[in-house]
Design brief:
- The protein has helices at residues 2-35, 62-77, 93-99, 111-121, 161-173, 223-228, 233-236, 261-270, 273-283, and strands at residues 54-60, 81-87, 105-110, 126-133, 137-139, 154-158, 178-179, 192-194, 200-204, 218-221, 239-240, 248-253, 288-289.
- The protein is α/β, with parallel strands linked by helices.
- The protein folds into 2 domains: 54-134 and 246-289, Periplasmic binding protein-like II (D-Maltodextrin-Binding Protein, domain 2, 3-Layer(aba) Sandwich); 137-240, Periplasmic binding protein-like II (D-Maltodextrin-Binding Protein, domain 2, 3-Layer(aba) Sandwich), CATH 3.40.190.
- Helix 2 (62-77) crosses helix 8.
- The protein is elongated.
Length: 291
């Protein structure tokens, strides 16, 4: 009997000790879980928020400059750059407003004109990149060829220094006048050495020239103004500059922002394959990519 009781007591003790061991294990596990650091629900996400879009305010002539800018705007939007395009119908305000920081850049002029304006106005605007060439042409509503140009005919040219010289050079290359130096882009009427048809050359603001076609026999017109007047340079011009014209139109900025990321991305978009394809398709040779 004693042996039976001893055996029973031993089994009971083993069970009690086992139960205590399980409780200790569970308590340790619970304690570890309780003491473990909780996840920080307020922790910031690892992905940085998207940067605010950068807006560039660009001054441009309506045709073709503003049209080209609008065509490449989607390329820039993908890079976080929004274009605000301000259209100008003159050649003075885009440079004035750029110098006064009302614009971030402009797109309307060639380098000879930019150099002349910097010299006249004491500004230091700079070229960022060349985009396209607009061959300069001669137009008329009264004649179909220069052979029909009568003695004493009235010929209108732009009144600004560089485009006026450019017009005179084109007249000289087509045998209508002779100049002291037919490579001098700053030539004036005072530099004409021969005028066999006694042409009456009148100087007018460039933007007015298309509206004066009814009043003159011939007008030499910048392509952007010709396009605005619904003239097709490759069809309507009696004669036109060749593709070797040095008058590439430029993206222009200030020294303080020309190397900024946004301006450089704009320059890249303006000289991209997409820009080239748009220029060639839209203008059919009236505008020629310079890149």
């Amino acid at each position: 009997m004693k042996k039976v009781l001893l055996t029973f007591f031993s089994l009971t003790l083993v069970l009690v000790l086992a139960a205590c061991g399980n409780n200790n294990t569970n308590n340790s596990a619970n304690s570890a879980a309780t003491n473990a650091p909780a996840a920080d629900a307020s922790a910031e996400p690892t992905t940085e928020p998207a940067a605010e879009p950068v807006t560039l305010v660009i001054g441009a002539s309506p045709k073709p400059h503003a049209e080209i800018l609008k065509a490449i705007a989607p390329l820039l939007e993908k890079q976080g750059i929004k274009l605000e395009i301000k259209e100008f119908t003159d050649y003075i305000l885009p440079n004035t407003q750029l110098a006064e920081r009302e614009l971030d850049a402009n797109f309307f002029q060639h380098k000879p004109y930019l150099d002349d304006q910097n010299k006249q106005n004491g500004t230091d605007l700079v070229s960022v990149t060349a985009v396209h060439v607009e061959p300069f042409g001669a137009y008329s509503k009264k004649i179909k060829s220069i052979g029909e140009l009568a003695d004493g005919a009235k010929v209108a040219i732009p009144n600004d220094a560089t485009n006026g010289g450019r017009a005179l050079i084109l007249l000289a290359k087509n045998g209508l006048i002779k100049l002291k130096d037919d490579t001098n882009i700053t030539s004036t009427t005072a530099d004409i050495t021969e005028n066999p048809k006694n042409l009456k050359i009148v100087e007018l603001e460039a933007a007015m020239l298309p509206r004066q076609l009814d009043e003159v026999d011939l007008a030499l017109i910048n392509t952007n103004y010709a396009l605005e007047a619904k003239l097709v340079p490759t069809k309507d011009a009696l004669f036109i500059e060749g593709t070797d014209s040095p008058y590439a139109n430029l993206l222009v900025a200030r020294p303080d922002n020309k190397d900024s990321d946004a301006i450089q991305k704009l320059a890249a978009a303006l000289t991209s394959p997409e820009a080239k394809a748009f220029i060639e398709k839209e203008y059919q040779g009236a505008i020629i990519p310079a890149f």
